[in-house]
User: Fold these one by one.
Assistant:
Number 1:
Amino acid sequence: MTIKIDALDAALLKVLAADPRAPILELAARLRIARNTVQARMKRLEASGAVRGYPPDVDLQAIGFAVHAFLGIELDQNKMDSIVEALREFPNVLEVHATTGRADLLVRIAAQSQQDLLGIIQRVHAIRGVKHTETMLALATPIQYRSLPLVEHLTDNPDTP
């Protein structure tokens, strides 16, 4: 379901991104709007699926997972579902994308060391249907995953689809 985001929604999302545990009354005070308006906006954003949750933003390096890599996987097409299910069982797999190009899947992995990463890659190779992998180490992450600039762009340019 696609919903229209306005400037108030964008402002609410910005405040929530900075402080996901902020109480409704505090959000209302920061935005200078009624508590009921905040509640209604949040309910609408959540019900539409635009806001999926408020998890903590964990710094993986701070908890010992300093090695980050992207693994491109070529696979037997008829095994994609079972391979994705097998990858779901790896706690080190942060996300999986089905892609076009040489790799069928792009997998983001966090590991404690290069040796740990090697073990994870070897376990991926053992999954039935995996043909080939290509590993790219992330040396730095100058831009973390973000969505707020896009939300703000939408509200600054309402005619943009």
Number 2:
Amino acid sequence: MGVDSFVDWLRDAASTLHENAAYLTELDSAIGDADHGANMDRGFQAIVAVLDETSFGSVDELMKKAGMTLVSKVGGASGPLYGTFFLRFGTALAGAELTPATIGEAFTAGVGGILQRGKPELGDKTMYDAWAPALDAYDAAVAGGSDLAGALTAAAEAAAKGRDATVPLVARKGRASYLGERSAGHQDPGATSTTLLLESAARTLP
């Protein structure tokens, strides 16, 4: 596993988000600005354009460029949040051997960036409701001796459960929080795109 695996992840994620753009926007239209799918699609297509023009010598260089691209190309909250995730993810892998443990540390660092920027808590009905259980499941799998494929699959499955658990929640962050009780009964779009990214990672990184 090396840079090519992470390029494959970004390309697969871009394809997946493109295919799900209308779905993500439909989710966002119920409780947000109705632009999450379009924003994520635009940002990841911009990453693909960079990949088509540039070769990268290290994973940290690649992921930092992906993060900067999202920050510059994606509006709303998702651009800065996902952009910060990839920037921190890349920084954590600078000079590191690529192992299930170090990749887990990179995921934790990336989500730490989301926490620092967005200040979410569990139950706020945000992407963190998918990220938090995904990190726990990944770390538990690695601690139990799992390889990268097993750890990423566990993370993706836990993210999906966290995503589904956002449906009954009343939003406490972002545009959705303006709706109060009316935000209940809707799946959070950020938790949904998080799950798509992790499912993509499970398909491509190992």
Number 3:
Amino acid sequence: MSVHSKLYEGKAKILYTTDDPEVLLADFKDDATAFNAQKRGSILGKGKINCSISTQLFQQLEASGIKTHFIDSPAPHQMRVKAVRIIPLEVVIRNIAAGSLCQQTGLELGTLLKQPLVEFYYKNDQLGDPLLTRDRLLLLELATPEQVDAITHLALEINQFLQEFWSRCGITLVDFKLEFGVDSQGNLLLADEISPDTCRLWNITEADPNRRVMDKDRFRKDLGNVEDAYQEVLQRVLQAVATQN
């Protein structure tokens, strides 16, 4: 596979075209951002760790019947993916109150939600990725009603799978972000990544609200030991997969 030109560079990855128009190469970066890129930094080894975690989780999801853009991982920090048109929505699934949900509703951090909450945010940095109602989403024609229904169903299905998987890792899945895309055949595929960058993960056996954090909140809140937390998540994922197999 020959790599051609840079197609797109985001906060966490660079996408390159290849000799196959249906295949892209994603190069995971060590760059870290928070608060809509107002805070910037670097997490040593993050690219390789997030690529490895995402590879394992995409493979697990594929095996369970969830269609993703994942093809393979030719290098520790690289992933070959199916070319898709990204739907400009960040789909956030919440199981426990944290982050902006607490800030905007007054719910106490750690409140267990009676049922998973699915939220849609406009993937638009200039607007600050605002929270959207379904009617606003449809008004802006960001997705069709059928796609919104399908995404909601898939998000809940993925959430159930990931909750069980992370639990086997000794980790609580608090909330997480997903992105979806449409391939050249019109198939809706899970895209982007699933990693400590996109998931809020708490160590099940740790009660301290700072020490339990195993995700990018360690970077956001200057909690320290960011690289160690990411590496610990990877080791638990690999162990869970090895035990399962």
